[in-house]
Write the structure tokens for this entry.
Amino acid sequence: MPSHTVPSHPNAAVAERVECMLQAADAAGAVALRYFQTPGLTVESKGEAGPVTQADREAEQCIRKAVSSRFAHDGFLGEEFGSQPGTSEFTWVIDPIDGTVSFAAGVPLFGTLIGLEQRFPDGSHKVVAGVCAMPALHERVWAVQGGGAWWERKDMPRVQAHLHAPVELKDAMVCTTGSEYFRRSNRMHVLSRLEHLTGRMRGWSDCYGLLLLATGRCHVAVDPVMNPWDCGPFPVIIEEAGGVFTNWTGKPGIHGGDSLACHPSMHAAMLSLLAD
């Protein structure tokens, strides 16, 4: 994916990191593509945490190296190598290959997720920039707080990303990763409600469903099992595209547990539908 000029941002520290974020996502995507659909790819199990490959580890190391070389005092939270506290106000939240199941099966619906979280003087934290890059599809969506969300595809001009106009739940297309996550979290009754009360459900899984939401190609993205690095860039991407990203109690952020993303006017009805 070619790099593009980053729109100006009043915070120079954020703007510099957005440029680095996009470059690091490109580099990590190149690592993933070297392994993608190659014979003999070794897939290991992390138990309940799911599968992992050498590509996951190398891609995360690639991102950490790219960031550390420019911002040595920033911290990290990554799926494969855990937490590394920093001394600056910035923490990079990394999922090097979100959708390792798809990746290992040779399915192109996997992505690199990078979120930039900033700590403010009052002690609060917020994701102020993020990217979801789909290297095998040659597209990505990224955003910076106050600077909009942007959709890029190979050989096409960059355009601003927007959610689809709101619809009634009975007409909504809902994306989720897979029914097994509802089963593992003892929420099959919630899945049943979703199936009966929304228009249709699709398993365009992991981060791809959220990318579809941010670019107006579905109406809701919901998952009952999420880690902070799975959420990483999406609070700012979805917000800048005109939506909301919360957990199932309506709390914003990347706390993990579960997630709901949709148009603001659909949010209350979806929270009611998802309530245990």
